[in-house]
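Follow-up to my post from last week.
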Amino acid sequence: MIGIGEYRVGSFPMMTIGLGSCIGLTLYDDSLKVGAMVHIMLPESAGRTDRPGKYADTAVPTIIKELNAMGCKNRSLVAKMAGGAAMFEYFGANLNIGERNAIKVRALLEEHHIHIAKEDVGGKVGRSVTFLPANNGKFSIRRADGTTAEL
Amino acid sequence: MKLTSVQSDAIQELGNIGAAHAATTLSQMLGSTVEMSVPAIKAIDIAELGSYMGEESAAMVAFELQGDIPHGGYIVFYISRESAIRLTNTMLGLTDMNRAMNEMDESALLEVGNIMVSAFLDATAELLGFIMLPSPPALSIDMAHAAMSSLISQMPEEIDEILLFSTELVCEEHKIDSDIIMLPEPTTLAKIVELMENMMKGI
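User reply:
Got it. Predicted complex:
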């Protein structure tokens, strides 16, 4: 179970629950069957380094670096992401953190030449994600009403 | 900020007074007795929020704390989805538990949240002489963790650990279980602690 601001790298099953405005991002290398998952809370770290998984601008380079160390090439990595919702309408006006998170993650992935295969982002809905690197990088989403979807 | 036991006691007392007023209004709306718990104070690392609030469906009516401190944190009326349906059924004279929630439920929940949180904050303002006004309410009926983490992301001061004060309000007759949860940001918390300490010293 990956909490807010945490990440894992490897081939074991990974899960994160209750994404609201946060983003659940996975990178997966099909040739090595390894991947990484991170639960990103905010777009910008503003120089903070103690919790790299918490911010998009530190999380993306951190998991790429760890995957590179395991032998993954950026061009063989495929990204998927979910979350980035606006759970409360009223507060959404000038503080759409979910949307800002998603925009930041997309820009960073592009910078590192990593393709986003699929995403399920935005809306007013919470999501939980299960990621199985050993099982072809299977990425499943569960919503509060019990419906599931595979990206 | 770390609280001493005296400071925790002070905040519990404040929660007690606020929640007692909120419980009275809920009791009047339901026409039934409402019991309240001793307020709990929890310090939770954001990475561990999942062990406190998970995937369960809940209705949350959230208010930003405004007034003397403009972005003072949040206060939330939290009620599990099942209890929320029992609550609106009781208010609207319905009995079907296995129904989808609609706009009528949403406006009823917003209204209940509004009345209870206003009662809570009126009582604390009177006690402390420190005004915390609720913003207009916002409602989420979804995964509890998704809604709560979104509120924490919006806190003006960036934090890795949240302090959360919650008081449980239970109506046995209608099997309704709800909580009032306050997430003060550090400036608000420091102010509340200071005022409560002064009061207890008799200043």
